[in-house]
Amino acid sequence: MADSQQDEQSKDAAVQSENETEVSTAEQAAEDAASPDFEVSDLTTARNVPAGPDRRQYIRRTFRSTAYLVFPQRDPIPVQTFDISLGGVGIVAPVNPPPKTECDILLNIPSGSSSLTKMQVPSQVMHSVFSSSENGFKVGFRFTTMPQGLTAAILRFMRT
């Protein structure tokens, strides 16, 4: 009889120890989530470290202009740009092109007080999401080829 009581007590102690371990692990996880392993200042430099296919690598600047998407055997589709970088452009479009879709984008990049640099740029869709506030699809494009003069035109625009 004493042996069975000892067995019961051992089992109870093991269960209690296991429960304490689970609680301790849960508490530790909560603490870890509440105190991340990075400082707030790290958030500003994290964007410079590529971590995936859609990770932004370039500084972006607001860029409001009419542009056109050019797909093979279709009329150009007018869109509104909202930002630009050396790596790509963000637009609002009435269509939802799937990721990895390739097309050309006709851009008019301001290059002085009243002049524009017109460029046709081969690009690829990186992401697309509907925006009710913009009444269209916000589409992120990556430039797949940098035509001669594009880098200089974007840098001039970004300096103004």
Task: Describe the 3D structure.
This protein is α+β, with helices and mostly antiparallel strands. The chain has a domain at 61-159: predicted glycosyltransferase like domains (Thrombin, subunit H, Beta Barrel). It has helices spanning 2-34, 42-46, 150-159, and strands spanning 61-70, 77-84, 88-93, 102-110, 116-131, 136-143. A six-stranded antiparallel β-barrel has the order 1-2-3-6-5-4. The protein is globular and about 35 Å long. The termini are far apart. The model is unreliable at 14-51 (pLDDT under 50).
List keywords for this structure.
alpha+beta, six-stranded antiparallel β-barrel, 36% strand
CATH superfamily of the domain at 61-159: predicted glycosyltransferase like domains
Based on secondary structure, the structural category is alpha+beta
CATH architecture call of the domain at 61-159:
Beta Barrel
CATH fold naming of the domain at 61-159: Thrombin, subunit H
Distance between the termini: 89 Å
Kindly state the number of beta strands.
Answer: 6
Using only C-alpha atoms, the radius of gyration works out to 27 Å
